[in-house]
């Protein structure tokens, strides 16, 4: 975004002071797009810089989504293994045909699986925070473009429409991440139910 700002300043399109925007909000800076439009090449550079920034944020969010998917898959595998091991413990205690040493070994495996599941949940939380941070940056970038678009409808309407689609996409990603987090919490609650005190 700094590159776009320098271009706006070089075209005298970036104004600093006190401005009342059409939305009713106050701002210490304002972009007069009419000045920038006098230089088509520079205008194209600004739009490219903004588009590149949004693309970069989108790639970061996509990477976080992939990490969440992988961690969730690992969590599900670990949870399935824990359930299987708990079932084995139940059969052993019911039949009393296995030795105490075997039982202790299985308990250790269960505790290990639970530990790995908890680690996976912490990773999901970290990835969710990164995803939300990326989403907030995209929303902020879109809000800035929206302010410009409201005062320069003819020149920026197309850009606003395209960035709004990006916001909708990341809203869906955020909702998906929230659902994954809810599922993970339920899995943890289920594992805690079988935890041996």
What does this structure look like?
This protein is mainly alpha-helical and 197 residues long. Helix content is 83%, strand content 7%. The protein contains five helices and two strands, in the order αββαααα. The protein has helices spanning 2-10, 33-36, 40-95, 100-151, 153-194, and strands at 14-20, 26-31. A two-stranded antiparallel ribbon has the order 1-2. β1 and β2 form a beta hairpin. α3 (40-95) runs antiparallel to α4 (100-151). It is rod-shaped. The termini are far apart. The relative contact order is 0.12. The mean pLDDT is 76.
Task: Give the gist of this structure.
With 197 residues, the chain is mainly α.
Q: Number of DSSP strands?
A: 2
Based on secondary structure, the structural category is: mainly alpha
Oligomer: single chain
Q: In order across it, which strands form the biggest sheet?
A: 1-2
